Amino acid sequence: MENEIYQAGDVVYVFYRNPHTQDVANVQSAAIVNNPEKEDELALFLYETYYPLSSDMAVYATEEEANQAYNYYYGDETERYLQ
């Protein structure tokens, strides 16, 4: 992920794991915002929490892209091999 392709105000999609049930993940929209701790950096704002953007994050520009990746990683194993 290249931070330069995002701007504050963009809406992106990420995988989010339920903190109470770790085996449950889903696609969630999030906002790209200016990082309040480092003014020259961007952050991902999700559920009232700021996450610094990094190349370790799987961030998708569209919900469709996120759903396709989600189905690939979390979908039925036989479905993965058919794609």
Q: What do you see in this structure?
A:
Mean pLDDT is 82; it is low at 77-83. This protein starts with 10 loop residues before the first strand and ends with a helix. It is α+β, with helices and mostly antiparallel strands. A hairpin with a 2-residue loop joins strand 3 (42-46) and strand 4 (49-52). The longest helix has 12 residues, at 63-74. The protein has 2 helices and 5 strands, in the order E-E-E-E-E-H-H. The chain has helices spanning 63-74, 77-82, and strands at 11-17, 25-34, 42-46, 49-52, 59-60. The protein has one domain (3-82). It has a 5-stranded antiparallel beta sheet with strand order 4-3-2-1-5.
Topology:
Layout: E1 11-17, E2 25-34, E3 42-46, E4 49-52, E5 59-60, H1 63-74, H2 77-82
Antiparallel strand pairs: 1-2, 1-5, 2-3, 3-4
Question: What is the compact description of this entry?
Answer:
By secondary structure, the chain is α+β, with helices and mostly antiparallel strands. It contains 2 helices and 5 strands; from the N terminus they run E-E-E-E-E-H-H.
- Broad shape: globular
- Helical/strand content category: alpha+beta
How many E strands? 5
What's the number of domains? 1
Major β-sheet, in short?
5 strands, antiparallel
Whole-number mean pLDDT = 82
